[in-house]
Amino acid sequence: MVHAGAMKLALPKFQFRFMRAAGNVIFPGNFHPIGTQREAEQMVARAAAGGSRTVEDPDDGGLWLIVGGSGGFGSAARVALACDHGADTINVSFDAAPNPESSNKVRKIGSPAWHRNVAIERELRKLGRTAISRTADAFDPVARASVIESLHARFPGRKLNGLVWALAAPRGLDPRTGKTVSSMLKPLGQSATIKTFGGPDGDTPPQIFELAVAKGTPEEAVSTVWVMGGRVVEAWIEDLLEADLLAPGHTLLTISYRGSPLNAPLYRDGLIGLAKADLEFTTRALSSVLLRAVEGRAFAVEGPAVVTEASGGIPGVPLYLALLFDIMRERHEDPLTSMRRMFNEHFFDAEPKPDADKLIRMDDRELQPEIQDELARRFEALKPGDSFDRGLYDRFMAAYARTRGFGVEGVDYEAEFDTDEVCRVDD
């Protein structure tokens, strides 16, 4: 059945602009749904290339809940769990679905995250795994109760072997006030200067900028800790325990990014650092709770710097990643490579190997002294007004464009597609 609002679209080029007032972050103007789905399909194919597990016992790989599983580390974690370890996965994320009634091209086709979910789940089902999504605001207690009710109904008799918390929301409902609050990437205590690049302008190559970022307010700090900290994770675990949905030996993993000395003013020493410290502390506390309740465990995981949909919107991160790619080259891990290594080296058939702070350090390769020393040398050498290497700029932008479905092999970007057809979900 073709919807009355269906249309033919062609999206030949990734559209974006730099926003100087926000720290020269990159604001994406569009995405390609077919490209986004193909990229997700290729991620599953990579993981399954060695032969996806044939699981005779349907419960063998366990049942895992991924909160924030529609992009970045979350989608990579569910692919790794399914392909390498035979797990069934449920994703909870709050992604814009296609709106066939809209006259706006982007709203009509939804969001990259929605299309990523559709493609991942379609491919995992082909491999014999159960993979479903629930669209829900993870911060909303009513939505959380609805997800828990659906778990009982959809998986009678089964319990969750693990929960991966990979939520990186810019905002969330605070049920204490009934208002939505936002997280802020701002320095703590004093303003900071960040170094970044801007795009080419005609014959002018990309250039280096230094921009001041004002310090965050106490109110912004409180909001950031709520959105990015551990309180909502704690609420999920409490409710899942009360619902008797956690299996013996349940594993909770909270995934985030600590950053390096070069981006510390906005990360570890900034408002987000307060939130990350809260998340790490809460995770350690929940490990004790899970141990007593179900002989379970919890670990905070520090991931490496990777390109995701959010990467272009964080001041200074595009420059950091562009240089990191060039220095690490084949040693750099994307989200899938990192998550596969994490599960293989620290879980399932291996024992976790946390550091002295009880953290699983998947940023270990990025933080090697020789890597950070070379990064620091290159950062110091770049001065405001300098031209930035066009090859490094293009490489980062190509990687960022892929998160929006552009530059993916096998996609004809000049061809028109039917908006109804590309948004169809197979039962």
From TrEMBL:
Keyword terms of this UniProt record: Fatty acid biosynthesis, Fatty acid metabolism, Lipid biosynthesis, Lipid metabolism, NAD, Oxidoreductase
Known catalytic reactions: a 2,3-saturated acyl-CoA + NAD(+) = a (2E)-enoyl-CoA + NADH + H(+)
Pfam assignment, any one: Eno-Rase_FAD_bd
Pathway assigned in UniProt: Lipid metabolism
Enoyl reductase FAD binding domain residues: 355-416
PANTHER family: ENOYL-[ACYL-CARRIER-PROTEIN] REDUCTASE [NADH]
Protein name per UniProt: trans-2-enoyl-CoA reductase (NAD(+))
